[in-house]
Amino acid sequence: MADASSPPRAFNNCTACHAAEAGQYGVGPHLAGIVGRTAGGVEGANYSAALASSGIVWDEDTLVRYLVNPNAVVPGGSMPATGLDEAEARGVVDYLNTL
Ligand code: HEC
C-alpha cells in the first residue's frame, strides 16, 4: 500500500499550477491545509472574483465536485477542468487531507 502522504498519480494533473507546500506560488494557490479552509484563503494568491466571493468552505465532498467539474462549483472561476473522474478526485482529496 502507498504511503498515506505520498501523492496519488492523479495529483500530477495539479502540480503544473499548484504546490503542496505553504508559501509556494504557482499559477494557482498552494494547497497546504486546503481541506476545511474557506475558498480564496491564501494570502497573495491570484483568485478570480467568482471564487474569492463564493463563500465556499472546502469540505471533502465539495472538493471532489470541484475537481471533477470546477465550473459547476465556481461558475466563472479561473481553474480549468482537471480531467479527473470522481474516483481519481477522491484519491487526490484523501491526499490533500494529509497536507
Ligand atoms: C492550469 C492550472 C491549474 C491546474 C492544472 C489545477 N488548478 Fe486548481 N486552481 C487554479 C487556479 C488559477 C485557481 C484559482 C481559481 C479561481 O480563483 O477561480 C485554482 C484553485 C484551486 C482550488 C481552490 C483553492 C482555494 O484556496 O480556494 C483548489 C482546491 C484547487 N485549485 C485544487 C486543484 C487540484 C487538486 C488540481 C489537480 C487535480 C488542480 N487544482 C489543478 C489552477 C489550476
UniProtKB/TrEMBL annotation:
Signal peptide: none annotated. Residues 2-99 form the Cytochrome c domain. This is Cytochrome c domain-containing protein. It comes from the Bacteria. One of its GO terms (molecular function) is electron transfer activity. It comes from Aurantiacibacter gangjinensis. Keywords: Electron transport, Heme, Iron, Metal-binding, Transport. Pfam families: Cytochrom_C. The keyword Transit peptide does not apply.
